[in-house]
């Protein structure tokens, strides 16, 4: 990538993003976010796709949020078509932080049901952050089709995304409570319990849902 003429510190920071030491890469990302320049954006986006350390990826995301959304968002949208799962996941994560509604059309059903768990989780969070007013019921219906997916952490992520949409999730949840798959039924029941009583905690809601499923009730009675 051809960069404009920059001072020595900036050039050093850009090169340091590829250093083998994570602490050096983190400091470099901090420096590039502290003194934002549109010329950094492509390099930061590219690094997000391959950076192995979570803490460094978080600073890369922060650095991108410090740059103009009008330039950053289109480059992130391009990453959503990448074959690399981390590129898609990090782009979605960063879009959820920028919260520019122009990104909403790019949060497709394919991303919301991506085979890679981290991509799907990032897509759920981004969708909830970007959904336009009035589109919540449609998003709730799409997200509810992922009920029962994965293990506890994955299911908690989906429940949190659904609950963030509010009462509009009740119709698809009640439909899912009648699903033939006990995992789907249990996850739907646990999500509804958590919506009603956020202080109960997900673990309690899951255990209660297991009892309901074992008794053959959907939780819709009474």
Summarize the structure.
64% of the residues lie in helices and 0% in strands.
Main traits of this protein?
222 residues; mainly alpha; 13 helices; 64% helix; 0% strand; elongated; disordered N terminus
Helices and strands in order:
Layout: H1 8-16, H2 22-34, H3 41-48, H4 54-65, H5 69-79, H6 85-98, H7 109-112, H8 117-130, H9 136-144, H10 152-164, H11 170-176, H12 182-196, H13 202-214
Describe this protein's structure.
Helices cover 64% and strands 0% of the residues. It is mainly α and 222 residues long. Helix 1 (8-16) crosses helix 2 and helix 4 crosses helix 6 (85-98). Mean pLDDT is 90; it is low at 1-5.
Average per-residue pLDDT, rounded, comes to 90
Task: Using the CA coordinates, give the radius of gyration.
Answer: 20 Å
Q: What percent strand?
A: under 5%
Which class of secondary structure composition applies to the elements?
mainly alpha
Helix content: 55-70%
């Amino acid at each position: 990538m051809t960069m404009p003429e920059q001072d020595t510190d900036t050039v050093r920071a850009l090169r340091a993003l590829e250093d083998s030491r994570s602490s050096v890469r983190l400091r470099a990302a901090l420096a590039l976010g502290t003194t934002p320049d549109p010329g950094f954006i492509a390099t930061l986006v590219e690094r997000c796709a391959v950076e192995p350390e979570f803490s460094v990826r978080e600073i890369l995301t922060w650095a991108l949020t410090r740059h103009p959304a009008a330039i950053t968002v289109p480059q992130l949208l391009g990453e959503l078509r990448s074959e690399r799962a981390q590129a898609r996941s990090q782009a979605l994560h960063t879009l959820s932080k920028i919260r520019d509604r122009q990104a909403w059309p790019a949060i497709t059903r394919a991303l919301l049901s991506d085979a890679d768990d981290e991509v799907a989780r990032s897509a759920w969070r981004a969708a909830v952050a970007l959904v336009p007013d009035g589109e919540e019921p449609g998003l709730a219906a799409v997200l509810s089709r992922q009920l029962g997916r994965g293990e506890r952490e994955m299911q908690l992520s989906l429940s949190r995304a659904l609950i963030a949409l509010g009462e509009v999730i009740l119709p698809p949840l009640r439909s899912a409570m009648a699903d033939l798959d006990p995992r789907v039924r249990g996850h739907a029941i646990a999500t509804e319990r958590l919506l009603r009583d956020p202080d109960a905690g997900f673990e309690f809601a899951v255990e209660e849902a297991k009892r309901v499923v074992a008794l053959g009730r959907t939780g819709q009675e009474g």
